[in-house]
Design brief:
116 residues, seven-stranded antiparallel β-sheet, 7% helix, 47% strand
Length: 116
């Protein structure tokens, strides 16, 4: 999952259309060789701030904080196999809602990538 073990891009979908119904989760590492790191379904308890990710491999249990107060939503997420974390640690990931520009441009604008 990259150098630090966390996926760069996390996509959570709640789909209801003629082709698919249900929730899907996808995560990828955004290195030069984009590889799918996670693929499965998810369920969330918004009151308790818990998420369960059922992947093709292990099941992950996580806690999250969703902040939609700014111009882009942010998702603080920490998850692991076996049981829910009791709180956030230095292993927590922060995901920022994507803008409608190419990924490289978005990362450059956010200051997480320097355009070479």
């Amino acid at each position: 999952w990259g150098a630090d073990g966390r996926p760069d891009v996390l996509t959570l979908l709640d789909v209801d259309n003629e082709y698919y119904q249900g929730r899907r989760v996808m995560a990828t590492d955004g290195g030069s060789q984009v590889a799918r790191a996670l693929w499965g379904t998810w369920e969330a308890d918004y009151v308790l701030g818990r998420v369960k990710i059922i992947s093709e491999g292990p099941t992950y249990y996580g806690i999250f904080e969703l902040d939609e107060s700014g111009p882009r939503a942010t998702l603080k997420l920490e998850y692991r196999e076996g049981s829910y974390p009791s709180g956030f640690s230095e292993n927590a990931s922060m995901y920022i809602e994507r803008d409608s520009v190419p990924r490289v441009d978005d990362a450059t604008q956010l200051g997480v990538l320097q355009n070479q």
